[in-house]
Every structure is written in C-alpha cells, then in structure tokens.
Amino acid sequence: MAIFSVYAVNKSGGFIYQYDNYVHRAEAEKTFRYPLDCVLKIHDEKVVVSFGQRDGIRVGNALLSINGLDVNGKFTADGKEIIEYLKDSTNYPLSILFGRARLSSNEKLMPASMFHSLFAIGSQLSPEVGSTGIEMLETDMFKRHCFQTLTGIKLIVLTDPRQSGIDELLRKIYEIYSDFALKNPFYSLAMPIRPPPQCRCWASPCS
Amino acid sequence: MTVHNLYIFDRNGSCLHYGEWNRKKQAGISKEEEFKLMYGMLFSIRSFCSKMSPLDMKDGFLTFQTSKYKLHYYETATGIKIIMNTDLGVPNAKDILHQIYSTVSMGLYVEYIVKNPLCVLGEQLSSDLFSTRLDLYIRALPFFSPRAA
User: Which of A122, A128, A136 is facing B25, going by the closest CB pair?
Assistant: First the structure.
C-alpha cells in the first residue's frame, strides 16, 4: 500500500486526526538458548535491543512477544519482569519476537507536534524571501507531504517515495475535512475529529 | 537553478565551514545562533524520521523542500554533516554532497590536519585553500548559475 498514514494537526500544534495504513512491520522471531546473546535495556517502558544485531534483529527493535504471548511493556503476559525472566536459565529454550515497536497514540502525538515547530523553523532559516514551512520531507523509505491551509490546519500524508499525485490527494482531503468536519454542527474547531463508525469517507481516497 | 548556501557540521554540532553564494534573505539572528538552530532542527528531523518510519531505514533523512528552497542533507559515518540549500529545480544532490565530502573536504581536511599538528578538531576550518577549492567546485556544478543581483 503506497500511502502509509494521514494526520491532521491544528494551528496550535495539537493532533486532531490520525489514520494509519501500515501493512508490514519488519519483525523477526527466533528461538534462543541460555544465555541470550543480545543485550537488552529498558527504554520508554519497553524492552529494546541495545547490542547484538544479527539475522533481522536490529538495534532499537523492541521485544514484542515471548513464546507467542504478547508482552505488556516491561512485563510478560503473566506479569513477570522480562529482564528477570530472561536471566533464569530454566525458562529456556524460548522463542522471542523482535520488531519495530508499534507507537502508541501518545508517542505519535509528540512527533506530529514537533513537526509543527520544525515547519516554522524551516521557514525562518530560509535563504529566500517568502518561503512557507516544510512542504515535503524525503527519506529513503518514505516521503512526508504537508499541506498548510489558510486557517493554519496542517494535513500530513506519509507515502512511499515513488508515489505521485499527492498534491491532489491533499486538496481532496481538505475538501472532505471542510465538508464533513467543519459543516458538522456538533464539531468544535481544533478539537480531535472522531468520525462515527459508519462513516468511511476519510478512508476511501487512500485505497 | 542555483545553490544558496552550504554548511558543514561535525558530530558535536560545531560548524566547521559555512559558504554562501546566492542568499537573498538573512535569518535575522546572529550567525552562531543560526548554526545552532540549523543543527538542532536537523537533529530533531532525524530522530523524528526514525520514529515515524514504517520500515527500518538504510540512509535516513535525505532532503526537505518548502515552496522556495530545497535543503539537501548528507551525513558520514564519523558524524560529519553536510547541508546544502538550493532552489527547487535541483534533483537529489546526495552524490554531489558525497563528492564534496570525499574529494574536497577529506582531501583538504587530511592535508590540513597533517600540516598543522596543533590545530584542534572541532574548530572552524579557517584554511583559505579549503574555501577556494569548495567555492570553485560549487561554481562548476551543472545546476549553479549566478543570478544577477
């Protein structure tokens, strides 16, 4: 799927809408014997690999499940601390799934609001007169397009780098936003948009 | 099509070199503050890209563009960062920045260190030879055209 996510940020930097369409997150499951050969550490309430990259398990990958049971932050599904559990040799051999950590909505909120400030700094550091903020940011894995409306709402779309036609998509999303969110008499401006479950209009331009 | 300016930072954030060719608008703050702001912005963009990325990234952040300029970014394994602001007509300049690093920068960087054993790494490169060579290289680029002032 070429479009990964759609976000909307209001003019004070608050998150008002998100839609994610990730298909495949890189994950690797392996069976381990005692002692474990990667070094793990606790980071942000999750257990991540800090050393010992090999075979699809990369530094920064989080521990997602042990023996098929999803872990709960620092604790296993049974409530035991993971680091202590892994030090005990009687629990081995066991199979552990490592992968990119799925971001909670709080964790998505921080980068989205950070982007709001970076957008303004981009326009301040401009060597040319009359520049807007960052409209498109490119990496080797994704492209991030940002459309700022006249009222200060930023519509952000994360896509595959080869995807084209995003300007039209952003205009269409703006049209849908003004038709369904702004014309809704129960919607307060700059508040998070929660479409009712029956409403699939937001999702359709992305498919 | 033109190049506006170029920054070179080391891994601690101190600016090693800054060159300007066609800059129309100054940032309104002192040069030191501008370097710090630029470095801070790029540091935040990099960490932000690694969090947002749906798959593990190989090279990381490459460029960003606004309505008036495009910023190209290149980072080496030792933490040296080269940033070039150009106008929108320039396609991906990663190879050019790599060339700047390997032939102009490394060539002269090594010479500079060898010839001056007392010079401190992390201070601004004050070698005239370096500035001239870099200036000539940028002017020779196919997309550089000096605008009438």
Answer: A128
Residue B56 to residue A157: CA distance in whole angstroms:
19
Contacts of A94 (CB under 8 A, 6+ apart): A31, A32, A66, A67
Q: How many CA atoms lie within 13 A of A43 on its CB side?
A: 12
**Cα–Cα distance for residue pair A147/A134, rounded to 1 Å:** 9
| Beta strands A143-148 and A154-159, pairing class | antiparallel
Summarised one tens digit per residue, pLDDT across range A29-85 is 777 777 777 788 887 777 778 887 777 777 777 777 777 777 777 777 777 787 777
This prediction's pTM = 0.77
CA–CA separation, A72 and A82 (whole Å): 9
Of A165, A178, A184, give the one whose Cα is nearest residue A8: A178
Chain B interface disruption, residue of A53, A58, A117, A125, most B CBs within 10 A: A125
DSSP secondary structure, A37-94, as one string: SSEEEEETTEEEEEE--BTTB-TTPEEEEETTEEPBTTB-TTS-BHHHHHH-GGG-SE
- pLDDT tens figures, B41-85: 888 888 888 877 777 677 778 888 888 888 899 888 888 888 888
Which chain A residues contact residue B34 at CB under 8 A? 125
**Measured CA distances, A168 to A61, A163, A175 (Å):** 36, 12, 11
